[in-house]
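INFO worker-7 received task bundle
INFO bundle size: 2
INFO processing item 0
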Amino acid sequence: MSNPWRHVLNKERIVFDARVKSILRSGVPKTLSLELKAHETFLKATVDAKAIGEEAWQQVQKLTLESIVRVTGVLRLCGDEVVTNGTNCINGTNGINGTNGINGTNGDGIGLSSPNGTASDTTYAVDVSEMAVVAQASPDIDSFRGEGPSRLGLEERLNNRILDVRNAAAGAIFKLHSGMCQLMVEFLCSNGFTWIHTPRIITATIAGDNEFFHLPYFGRNAWLAQSTQHHKQMALSMDMERVFEIGPVFRAEVKSQASARHLTEFTVLDIGMAFQDHYHEVLEMIESMLVFVFRGLQERQQYSGLIEIVKELYPSARPFRIGLDKDGKVPHITFLEAKRILREELGYAADDADKISDQEEAVLGRHFRASVHLGQTDIFTIDQYPASMRQFNSVPNPDAPGFSNAWDTIVGGREICSGSQRMNSYDEVREAMRAGVCGPPLDPEADEWQAYLTAFKTGMPRHGGCGLGVNRLLQTFLGLDDIREVTLFPRDVNRLAP
């Protein structure tokens, strides 16, 4: 239902489909009060047998919660009156399963507050002249009526995902997920990127990596892709220059059994970009995209109202801070500087020879958020990682032996984006494969690598790229505790349904 105010002001007779959220049989013979949800608008419906006719009345009397009805009637405001099920009138906005509404927007981005744009105590009601049952819900389904996400266990909610996402707060999360992807596409396409689609069934894997899902493939061996990096590089060699892809990848993460940040299937934004002078051209493009996305979510009306709904019902949700340096860019520190801060400023025994742990990322995230000197920001980048901690094809830093032109971008105290300058020389890639700097040696003569190496043999531009976890990005932006909150149908060691 787009722009209910227009229908109220024009006193129009309208027809719409709605879901039944509560039913109250009044003391007045042959009348019924319903609370309905049409898109993101909650409204009260008064049904009178005389108005709708005896045949329709017989159907309406059998209504169950979560059923869908087609309503014909005139929309009006019900003022401060109390809905007959005992809850307060919903404020015409994204209602929260019978609790007080929150001023926001509907699914069409139309403001649902009063006509002058201020908060309103009024809500919508419809005087029903016709009603038909479109879909009758079973009377024995579980109901989350009146239960917000904070009152129910996540496993219970995931087991009843359909009903769970009908809750306004859970539903708002997935509208924000859609909005985040739309903003990514908007930014990248406006900056000359080509949206590509690459296969998830692959033949080349890294020996010793046990996190690939094996896939028997018509008598041959295949695997599900953990990333699209190799095909993305092949596309760059086709002179596409700037490419991206949003889609699922797969990783046999045993730790997803008990982790709040890992899944076995998740959505990744993969970006590849040729550059002219320095790999920071790629890094700064990606950081600019992230700032664009975060500001778009915070400032565009169709998303900001959804964020408020999430914050209302999720205790861990908190405002996201974008702090930029004096040049208007995302703050950078090197890997060694991050280790120094951990040791000298935060009191952690952080060894330069060790990877930055999940706990250390979280500590650095809190430090950057609190520190005025560092920008009080929830986003920053750690650059110049040791070559031994990166993929074989990351370019070493010629001025700092043992380090590579590779980075992690940290959002909300969690790594959400790993990237690097990739080698573009055919001979250097083959040599790096044999050397096995960050893993077991690879055989560049093996059949499964020939298609990939052809991209270099035929001339590859200088380039860099990254993989960015979309689910984790939204989780950290909203400040939620578990990545499964932002995954519509999560998959982990324990979960294969729904």
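INFO item 0 finished
INFO processing item 1
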Amino acid sequence: GCDVWDDIIAAATYVNPCFNVYHIRDFCPFLSDVIGYPSLNPGPETYFGRADVQAALHVPPTNWSECIDYSILNPDGSVPSGLGPLPRVIEATNNTLIAHGLLDFVLISNGTLLTIQNMTWNGAQGFQTRPSSVKNAFTPYHDGFAQLINFTASAPFIQDAGAGLLGTVHSERGLTYTEVLLAGHLIPWFTPGVAYRQLEFLLGRISSLEERSGFTTLTGDFFEDYPDSRAACLGPSCASTDPCEESSCFDSLIQPVR
């Protein structure tokens, strides 16, 4: 048949029974998940289902679930967002961000780009230049890396946000489109540092997602505290003096520390 998407999921599940359409790099066993979805190992109770958490959030007691049966919303006769609402939001704010995790299989990045190219806003249709395929979206370092390298990190280790060039970004006429390399369907879940940087951009605290600077709420130059990275990228093996350039020596340093 023509339902290629479902065929791909079925084939992937035969090879990897723990295949996750929201993050295609997941593998068995299912990890315990306090949110309860999409893992099939939710644990004894979900975090937002706990009475103390609901009380702290001032919500009435409820049987919380991350997802609901969306059929209750049908039929939805709304105009597709790209044909009306989204262009108006862009034109009204000139500060709109569309972010896409490349490990997501629910939404495909090429589909998002096709929607953008068929959308008209601020006097023109689509992007006028092709978005870069070279990694240029920068996420700052933090002191967690120094703790790991110096074996001073304590358990549980929660500073698990990757840093460096973790994606691409392109902006035109008030719309910014960014792709995140290691994120799935939920960017703050899989790449929290990237998501926080995107929030800083939307709030106007940084001028661009390409800006090479630290987090605006975290003092200190943590790239300097990670001396091996600067030495490797400024040493004789690299011709450039830009430690964040797209180079083979830096590529190995921007992967998440595991």
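INFO item 1 finished
INFO post-check item 1: The CA atoms of residues 5 and 60 lie 39 Å apart.
INFO post-check item 1: The radius of gyration is 21 Å.
INFO worker-7 idle
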